[in-house]
Amino acid sequence: MKHTIYPQDWPDIDTGIYKRSVKLFSAVKNLLSVKLELYADNQVLQGDIFLFNHFSRFETFIPQFLIFEKTGAFSCAIASGEFFKEDNVLSDYLKQVGVFPHDHPRLFAMLASQILRGRKIIIFPEGGMVKDHRVIDKKGEYSIYSRMTGSRGKQHTGPAVLGQGVEALKAAIRHAFKENQIDRLQHWQELLQFDSPDELMAPAHKPTLIVPANITFYPIRTSENLLFKSVELFSEKMSQREAEELLIEGNIMLKDTDMDIRMSAPVNPCCVWDWRTHFLMDKVAPGIREPDDVFKFTSEPRNLKERLLGYYFVQNAKCSRNQYTEKIYANVTVNLSHLASTLIMSFVGAKRLRIEKNRFYMVLYSAIKKLQKNPDIHLHRSLLNPDDYGDLIHAVNTRFDQFICVAKEAGLIAEQNGCYHFLPALCADYDFDRIRLENPIAVYNNETAPLRMIRDTLLEADRDYQPINPYQLTAWYLEDEQLSLAFEQQNYRTPGNSDINQKESAIADPSPFFIKPKQANGLGILLIHGLLSSAAEMREYGHYLACQGYTVLGIRLKGHGTSPYALRDINYEQWFASVRRGFNILKLHCPKLFAIGFSTGGALAFKLAAEHHHEIIGLVAVSVPIKFVNPAFMLVSLLQGTNTLVQWVSSYEGIKPFIENTPEHPDINYCNTPVRALYELRRLIHSLETLFPEVATPSLLLYADRDPVVQPQSSKIVFEKLAANHKYLHAVKAERHNILMENIGNTWALIDEFLTQRQSAPDNLDHNPQKPPLQETA
């Protein structure tokens, strides 16, 4: 094989072209569908040698430009010598942006000089793409497949050798300072292109640090894409390897793929030096005059000391390599497909070739909750946001369903009789250039194989599947609600939303609450707050109910208690999803329960009752909204067509998206009402028009006779339409809207009477819509 002959020196980075390339990268990044997230603090970014795992060609262009955006530092990278065989536009460009050929005889010396000048070095120590993500061999040791040799081997020690070499050069410079060797210092100054010898002092004393990093793509898609189809159209024949890479790479760039780059704490390549290495370094440093001198310790040593030091460098490099290799793979961003794949392959390994669907979902949910407590596991943001994973507990989840769909299409899984069956294709041998297409489950499993805790946690969750304590599920529910609240606060309490947020005065804790009474009476109460408010308005009343023996759960409707901007992005179906989640949790504790809702919460309680849940034995709706006092809240006629309403709201919202209001409790409620929220409330009420006649649950409706927000006739309208045999309507003399929170007119006592009455009522009277409704007033 003919080797390329390179010049001794290599062109310096053209900073102008480099900066223009960064701008181009930023523009292209915005056009592509890749969602790039960098997890690294500023201290980590001060490292010198950055190491990345290698799964796709696309990722090789990212790190250096990303580091420049974050730090302003230029980076050098290493590419195959194939790109530099001929002088052409591509090879010239690569030289100008700091790319060096991997087979240049002075590679390490040139890179060491760049580090001393403050440049960063980007290295992929795996040496090539690891398409199967298999980095652990059968013995449990780190190794990777090499396409060149056709066998498995260790990750490269080059970064550790380079780091030690740089430290040796720094030792030589420090020795020159110590001995006041002016000529030697001037020599280093000119060689490294510094303006004065004094500028050598800072880099000579800065530790050389290696930063291990992991790049994780999610999801891995195998369907055809525009890039693949375009190349296929104009190419006569593609090789298997080319077709596979176009499919995978094209989907990464064009189909909403998350690219998480996670950098760990730096590794000092000299941390493994013992006294012998330090002793020899002190003896050898005075004789080092060129960067090349250091990297000839093993091949062309000038004396015994250099030969010994070179030997120790090689041995120390293996120890450093083991450290940064472990950190690279420990920083994988774990997603739902990783968890599902690990569980599947663990089952297959144990000859368990099927799993019940409900069990699969619940095991995944349980494992997620356990892994959230583990600081050593880095979870994908979708596993930290309950909106993405929370419905697993109810055996539905969009991400998981997509994963299963891909697995079925690949012939890896079959679904039958409420079970997922694991097929023989999961254990088949696949070509290195086909495994990403034909067995993505194996690829996902391999990627998290170094994290033994993932597998252990999943198997523990499987063992604990039956039964899960209701209080554990409740604890997870409340934890998820807190996480959801935190996500909303993070996403909507931003400078861009300050125009409205700064006008808000709510300070009360909006968190949902669960209260277990000291002496439980076996009955539960679900509390649902009103529009613009939060669970805070129900908290005191919740404690009052718990003192009477009720198990109480006060929920938070999505979009509330954070920012009016959050509420603006929520529909009423999402409010109702919050109600249903709370109901599903509370019924685990209590076979019978009541739903009590204030204002919009009352409307949502009726929607829940319309589903005919046998657990609900009574419903209380306070100040339920049908008609409003403020005409601005009316928007348009309730019966107006939905399409017209959508058009009207869209045009109106463009002019004024929020309506200012003066809440009765500014420490709890929003002071700005999103027009979208009013539209969603009208949609909710409109949907109830057909549902009220279906509500057979015994109901109590309370309202203020001079309510300043909701017209008193609202409760009367609802009362007339209910199909319940036992329904009660009561007016409270008050000029306030929230008569429940303030307990005006002994509202709590009125509700107590209703609750007590329903507890002693025969079950067969509670849900019988066939009988004519009795209109009762209390």
Concise synopsis of the structure shown:
With 778 residues, the protein is an alpha/beta fold.
Q: How do the helices and strands line up, and which of them pair or pack?
A:
Blueprint: H1 15-31, E1 34-39, E2 49-52, H2 63-71, E3 75-79, H3 89-96, E4 99-101, H4 107-116, E5 120-123, E6 144-146, E7 151-153, H5 158-178, H6 182-192, H7 201-205, E8 210-218, H8 226-234, H9 240-254, E9 257-263, H10 275-284, H11 291-294, H12 304-330, E10 333-334, H13 336-349, E11 354-356, H14 357-371, E12 378-379, H15 386-389, H16 398-409, E13 413-416, E14 419-422, H17 435-438, H18 440-448, H19 452-463, H20 470-492, H21 498-501, E15 513-515, E16 523-528, H22 536-546, E17 551-554, H23 564-568, H24 572-589, E18 592-598, H25 600-609, E19 616-622, H26 631-634, H27 642-655, E20 658-660, E21 672-674, H28 675-689, E22 699-704, H29 713-721, E23 727-732, H30 747-759, E24 775-777
Gyration radius, to the nearest Å?
33 Å
Helix content, binned percent: 40-55%
Strand content: 5-15%
Largest sheet: 8 strands, mixed
Total strands: the figure is 24
Give the mean pLDDT: 90
Structural class: alpha/beta
Show unreliable segments: 635-645, 764-778
What is the first-to-last residue Cα distance?
98 Å
Would you kindly provide a written description of the structure presented here, covering whatever features stand out?
This protein has 778 residues and is an alpha/beta fold. The protein is built from 30 helices and 24 strands. The strands form six sheets. Strands 15-17-16-18-19-22-23-24 form an eight-stranded mixed beta sheet, sandwiched between helices. Strands 1-9-8-2-5-3-4 form a seven-stranded mixed beta sheet, with helices on both faces. A hairpin with a 4-residue loop joins strand 6 and strand 7. Helix 25 packs parallel to helix 28.
